[in-house]
Amino acid sequence: MIRYFLLITCAFNLFTGTGYFFFSGVTNFGDWAAVISGLYPHWLWRALVVVGGTAICYAAVRVVGIGLVRYVGVPRDQHTLRKLTIVPYVTAILCRSVAGLLNPLGIQLLWQSALPATAGGQSGLLWVQYYIPRRTAAERTPERLGRK
């Protein structure tokens, strides 16, 4: 259970960090859009941010999928993988939506930022099951995680 918790925590951080490149390139909004705003030709830099974001998102999905099977010991059947990834995805959307409702700047920020970032950024959890390499086998050891 601890391994699953740590992996899902890692997944949320990876998907948020890597998905932002893709989002920023596609929408021309955000920090990376500001970074490339003065570079010429702008369309090329924007395309590079989208392609780079896509590549690192794909890598993050593979890392999470391999971790689910190899280190958490999740069987490779679709039903189990779906159940273990959809529940955290929906929970994240609900929790961040509630937090966004409490924003003093208003509900508009929820629609423009919190929901798209969560639903899009964490969508890797929905398709991780399709990108686990076939040769990936469980390597989970019976001992517990401990401090050294």
Outline of the structure:
The protein is mostly helical and 148 residues long. 70% of the residues lie in helices and 0% in strands.
What does this structure look like?
With 148 residues, the chain is mostly helical. The protein has one domain. The chain is 70% helix and 0% strand. It contains six helices and no strands. The chain has helices at 2-27, 31-36, 42-70, 78-101, 108-121, 124-127. Helix 1 (2-27) runs antiparallel to helix 3 (42-70) and helix 1 (2-27) packs across helix 5. The mean pLDDT is 88.
Key attributes of the depicted protein:
single chain; 148 residues; mainly alpha
Strand content: under 5%
Overall pLDDT metric: 88
Low-confidence stretches: none
Radius of gyration from the alpha-carbon trace, in angstroms? 18 Å
Q: Give the tally of β-strands.
A: 0
Bulk shape: flat
Q: Give the biggest sheet.
A: none
Between the first and last Cα atoms, what is the distance in angstroms?
20 Å
Query: Residue share in helices?
Result: 55-70%
The topology string of helices and strands comes to HHHHHH
Number of helical segments with 4 or more residues: 6
